[in-house]
Fold:
Amino acid sequence: MKGTRRAMSATVLALAMVGMAAGSAAQTDEEFEKIFPFLGHWDAQVSSPDGQDRGNCGGQPGDYGEKLVNCTMPVGRLPLNSRALAWLQYGDQLQSPTQADCAQIGSPAILGDGAIFISAYPGRVITEHPSNPWHVTRTVWMKGTGPQPLPGELFQHGLSRGRFDGNDLVIETTHFTFDPDGIDDHLRMASSVRKKVTERYRLIDDTNLRLIITLEDPTFLTRPFTYAFVFTKAGTDGPRQGWRQCDAESARREQEYSYPATKYLDAR
Amino acid sequence: MKLCFVAAFAVMSAVLAVPATAHHSFNTFFDMSRTIAIEGVVTSFRLVSPHSEMLVDVPDARGKAVAWRITARTGAVNARREGWKPEDFIGKKVKVEGNPTRRVGGTAMTAGVVTFVEGGRVVCLGGCPGGPPVE
Structure:
């Protein structure tokens, strides 16, 4: 009997601790009302009919004059500084972490790569970005919750914090690692640890969403760059976690066999 | 009961068949405006992402086998849904039609249609009618 009472007390204490921990992140009815219209599966209207000729990288040719495609932003209007232009001269496809070595693409490229699935929990919003060959999942910390990074602590997808500005869901992401493909992987334009991505999700109506993206990176851009995508609510209940085990050996071989040429002959 | 099962399966298939968006770019690597054909023996077929790949030994003018790399226009998930099995391909003589690499003198292409020389079975590796979604 005494043991049972002790076990019950422990259970109550544990529940109380969980409740206290969750207290600061509890979702009020008002917050739920605000996030609810954003929940679900949104398809980006950024693909051409065959799904391949998206973007054309603003007309920017590759190292051999080839037509680069699948850029996920209007890179032709990027305010690149002279350091960035020098980077473009230096880079090649075989040093691209995403194209040659299966690394996930980062923000903001991932935001225009097809679809976004948004779900929410008290204190956090989850955004999923299904693509081939990745399925990127991000946690957006709301109301000041989430980790407090140490000075100099950086993350591949950054640290995302969200809030509501009126009815807009605004997500600000900082604390990125240096990323050789961090502005756009098909353009092969890098981003620095000073990168900041601001996403503003604004509902046009019940089934259409405008995502306004502002990219800042003083290391490579002369000024902040803003562009937007329109998403439509998809008729499914969301993307399935597919088998997304990217094969780096095969991805690299695709570059070596099929890219027009090799830029650095002594470094494969 | 059987009808219900078929209907449920159809709905499930429609949901599961929502294609992932293509990310790696075919146009950058392959000349999609040209079609070529090769004939040889399959030595390897791997169901991987971003794109499944097949190696085919093609005899050159002197009869020496040259390895051609065939890039399917879809990844591992769709390849498995299509029921592709490496053992059904490896060792078989095939004709492959597709778009050639942009690398001058390169021995690669993206397929396209694969026709088994013996038996005439035809398999679409993506980008042709009846094939899996391009990704």
